[in-house]
Amino acid sequence: MIEFQNVSFSYDKKTPVVQDLDLVIKKGETVGLIGANGAGKSTILKLMLGLLYGEGTIIVDGLSVTKANLPMIRKKTGYVLQDSDNQMFMPTVYEDMMFGLRNYGMSREAAEARVDAVLEQLGLQDLKYRHNHKISGGEKRMAAIATVLVMQPEVILMDEPSTALDPFNRRTVIRTIQVLPQTKVIASHDLDMILETCDRVVLLSHGKVVADGDCGMILRDRALLEQNRMELPLCMQMQGV
Q: Which pLDDT tens digit goes with each residue over 89-117?
């Protein structure tokens, strides 16, 4: 579904953020990208969408990430940004969720039915007509996730999806991720969430893959995590792993 072939990227043309990355993500996988600040997690997500361009080749569902292919790639791909303020641009949650559906030609009736179904799935019915500038950071985070899910993309990219969420909404997001059938790539410092939602983990350091494999095995490896400026998930710390 997604393939990186010898991909490198630098913001200043001097310091590499992603270095010689080779990575394959299969259709239907849920993959967690983990690593300390600056490891390259968010950059990799942006490279998949053509928001950044570097060296090497990136393929999404058979399409090379080039300017000519971006409309098709972005129609297949949903992206939950790290900063929800950069994602919510319409006056209300309802209008944000309707925008993409209507832009792709869906009737108003069908679009409203899908919006209502996603709001119910996430328990956000009360946010439907709320103004984006009048809701809390956590509510806006949930609304941003709703705007992606309503499009039913084939690939979902999430950058720190649990940021600013209270325990109830965090649990809702985890349960939602667990049942979504799409290919999902989740970049996060919330290792407990990664443990509950991902089958596979890719541990990054300075833009390179340090470890790639079973989620439980990597997240139980205290020495490996500490070598890369990370700690065990809290649930494992409490278990004395």
A: 899 999 999 999 999 899 999 999 999 99
Q: What is the mean pLDDT of residues 119-132?
A: 93
Record the tokens describing residue 165, joined without a space. 């969420």
User: How many other C-beta atoms can be found within 10 angstroms of the C-beta atom of residue 110?
Assistant: 11
The pTM score is 0.92
Among all chains, which residue has been given the structure tokens 């259709």?
Answer: 27
Residue 114: CB atoms within 10 A of its CB come to: 18
User: Average pLDDT, whole number, for the chain?
Assistant: 93
Residues paired with 85 in a beta bridge: none
> pLDDT tier at 86 (50, 70, 90 boundaries)?
confident
What's the Cα-to-Cα distance from 185 to each of 23, 103, 106, rounded to whole Å? Answer: 12, 25, 27
Are the C-beta atoms of residues 94 and 115 closer than 8 Å to each other? yes
Smallest CA-to-CA distance from 18 within 50, 53, 66 is with 53
The answer to whether 219 and 231 are in contact (CB under 8 A) is no
